[in-house]
Every structure is written in C-alpha cells, then in structure tokens.
From TrEMBL:
PANTHER family in alphabetical order: EPOXYQUEUOSINE REDUCTASE (PTHR30002:SF4)
Keywords in alphabetical order: 4Fe-4S, Cytoplasm, Iron, Iron-sulfur, Metal-binding, Oxidoreductase, Queuosine biosynthesis, tRNA processing
Pfam families: Fer4_16, HEAT_2, QueG_DUF1730
Single GO molecular function: 4 iron, 4 sulfur cluster binding
Taxonomic superkingdom: Bacteria
Signal peptide from the UniProt entry: none
Domain 4Fe-4S ferredoxin-type: 181-210
Protein name: Epoxyqueuosine reductase
Matching Gene3D superfamilies: Leucine-rich Repeat Variant
Organism for this UniProt entry: Marinithermofilum abyssi
Source species taxonomy: Bacteria, Bacillati, Bacillota, Bacilli, Bacillales
Length: 390
C-alpha cells in the first residue's frame, strides 16, 4: 500500500496525540533565507553565544543535513511554570534556583523519545523514508522551524510563543525526504508590547527579536570562567538560566501545564540549598542533577553561581566554607569567586582570610578577585561609617 501525503499527515497527527505530543506542525524543507541574513548580521555584531552550530549554511538549509529533504516535522511539549509549595530561603539555609527549562528530566531526552515514536510510525507507512531527528543541539533553528510549521510565532524576547502554552514549550524537529503538505505559519504576534525588552536587566534584548547572547544572563550562568563583575549582583541566586523575559510576557500569564510527567519539578533539585552544592563531588553532582538539562556544563558553573548567590544573600554562616574554598580549592575560578563573595559578606573573619590570601595566592586572576573583595570590604565599611555619622 502506498500512502498518500495527506493520509501520512493525518496518521502522524494521530500518532502525536498517542505519544502525548502537545503540538505538531509540518513545514517545507526550503532554505531559511531570511534567517540566514539575520544570522550573518548577528555574527557581525558579535551577538552569538558560541553554543550554536558555527556553519550558518547548516543552520539555515535543511538539505545540508539531509540532501533529499522535503519536509520538516516540528513538535512542541509544554512544561510547567509554577511549583506548588516551593521551599523558601531562610537565614543560614539560602537556596538557589534553576530556570523552568531545567525542571524535571532533561528535555533533550524526552523530545527525542517522542520524535523516535513519530519516526517509527512514519517508517511503518514509508519504510524507505530517510529521517533525521534534531533536538536543540541540532544544526537548525528550532524556533524558525516551529514558526514555519505553524506551532507559534517568535516573540520579541526571541522565544517561540504558542497560543495555548505561551512560551513554556520545548521544541524539536525531524527532517525527512517524504513530502507532507505544509501547515500555514501563525500570523499572530506581540503587537506593540515591549515588556520583555523593558524588563531585561542587562539590555540583552537589543531590538525586537534580536538577542545579544553575550549579555544574556541565561547564557552567563552557563559560562565556565569568572563571571564579569557587571553581572554578579544582578544574577542573584540563579544557578542556571534566567526566566525574566518569559515571566513578564502577557502571553504566559496564568499558564501552568503539568500534564507532562517527566517535566514535573523536584523542589529540592530545582531550588537546592546553596552551601551543600559547594562540597559536592562530581559523582554526587551527577547522581543528583545529572538527569536535568541544567547539568550539561558540569558542576563548576553551578558552584560558581552558588558562591555568587551566597554573596548576594550576604550569608555570614557561609564564611567558613568560603574561606576553605579560597584556601584549598584547586580551581582558580572557585577560589577567586569565593574571594569576591567574602568581600560582599564582610566581617573580620572574611577580611583576615582575604589579607592572608593576598600573601599566599599565586594565580593573578585570583589575586585580582582578592583585591576586589578587599575593596568591597572597604566600601562597606565606609558606608557603615557614613550611616553612623548620620
């Protein structure tokens, strides 16, 4: 039996329902010419994160991945935006937070399983079909594909926004050499709303739909080196990712879908206590956080961000632990960040440790942070003296 294109589409739509896929759409595999021009301009301006596929032709031409490509099948899975009864920070027991896109099981795995299910159904109908699955780490732009396939539209915050689930969706796609009638792109947009641009704390949303990834706090939380001083105070207690541009979006208001069981958050994982993170071994980190999307860069960025969060909270109970890191941790980024946090927290014990480190530390980057910590202490003392005089 030879399946006709419309029948194949109907069967895949039904398969998507059976697989608990929230949205499915179909797009042509023609090159994304407009996207190509935007990406070239993006590169010229230095706005790339470095996590993307470097070859812009691969990012914009599906046939660079599958030469006989005719159709791209796009899917979306909704994820939660709220926790019931989340744990709260309290003195001596402060907590960090993972962004919502890292709640539950790593979405790459979940999406791939769903797409494998669709691939299986397609091969049952067209055994000779060629298929290529992509989830986030693939060459193509998930958002551009989803927009062309009618899943939603790309908002001014650069997120893909759906009518039903707002931007709280994960995206994946499958390229195939089977022709399937395409869907119509969504024409709805953000109108004159600029709440996301106005709320971005670093100005990373430089224009509607244009993101300077280098200035985005979601990106900064994933870097492995020293966090630039300009971002340290505003990053707060964020361990991975940053949700502000989605939280302020009117299309996300009062939206919270919990029907995808894999994405339901474990509160103790997504809002973990900060201090225990700093003494966690690699094995312990993998056991506890290894199934989360936010673990993909390893534990060092998470630990660095946890130290920054302790400085943000000015957690005096963490001073002995931070001193231990400053004196003993083999990683310069951790020693230096601990020095900065000690300067933010202040107190005689922190000051003594920083002065001692000034005499014993050899790494120039760490010494710079030690000096910064001592300067923060002096500024805090001067401010305290001025308040006393007032």
């Amino acid at each position: 039996m030879k399946w006709q294109p419309e029948a194949i589409k109907r069967e895949l739509i039904q398969a998507a329902k059976d697989l608990n896929i929230d949205k499915i759409g179909f797009a042509s595999a023609d090159p994304f010419e407009e996207l190509r021009e935007r990406l070239l301009r993006h590169r010229e301006l230095g706005y790339e994160s470095g996590f993307e596929e470097l070859d812009i032709e691969k990012r914009t031409d599906p046939r660079k991945t599958l030469p006989e490509a005719k159709t791209i099948i796009a899917i979306a899975l909704a994820y939660p935006s709220k926790m019931s009864d989340p744990p709260r920070s309290e003195p001596g027991k402060y907590r960090g937070v993972f962004c919502r896109a890292s709640w539950g099981e790593d979405y790459h795995r979940v999406l791939r399983r769903r797409l494998e299910g669709l691939k299986k159904r397609l091969l049952e109908m067209v055994p000779e079909a060629a298929c290529e699955i992509m989830v986030d780490t693939g060459a193509l732009s998930d958002r551009a594909v989803a927009e062309r396939a009618g899943i939603g539209w790309i908002g001014k915050n650069t997120a893909l926004i759906t009518e039903e689930f707002g931007s709280w969706v994960y995206l994946g796609e499958m390229i195939t050499d089977v022709y399937i009638p395409p869907d119509t792109p969504v024409t709805e947009g953000c109108g004159d709303c600029t709440l996301c641009i106005d709320a971005c704390p670093t100005g990373a949303l430089v224009a509607p739909g244009q993101l300077n990834a280098q200035a985005c706090l979601a990106y900064q939380t994933q870097t492995k080196g020293f966090l630039s001083p300009e971002y340290r105070d505003i990053i707060g207690n964020h361990l991975y990712g940053f949700d502000t541009c989605q939280l302020v979006c009117p299309k996300n208001r009062k939206i919270n879908f919990t029907h995808q069981e894999e994405f339901r958050p474990d509160p103790e994982k997504v809002k973990p206590l900060l201090q225990p993170l700093l003494t966690m071994s690699n094995r312990e980190f993998r056991k506890r956080f290894g199934n989360m999307a936010g673990s993909w860069r390893g534990k060092k960025p998470i630990q660095r961000n946890a130290i920054l969060a302790l400085g943000h909270f000015r957690d005096h109970t963490s001073v002995p632990l931070l001193i231990q890191l400053l004196q003993e941790d083999p990683r310069p980024v951790i020693r230096g960040t601990a020095a900065w946090a000690l300067g933010k927290i202040g107190g005689p014990e922190a000051e003594d440790a920083l002065r001692q480190a000034r005499d014993t530390e050899n790494d120039p980057d760490v010494l710079r942070e030690v000096d910064e910590g001592l300067m923060l202490l002096k500024e805090d003392q001067r401010s305290h003296n001025r308040r006393g005089l007032g």
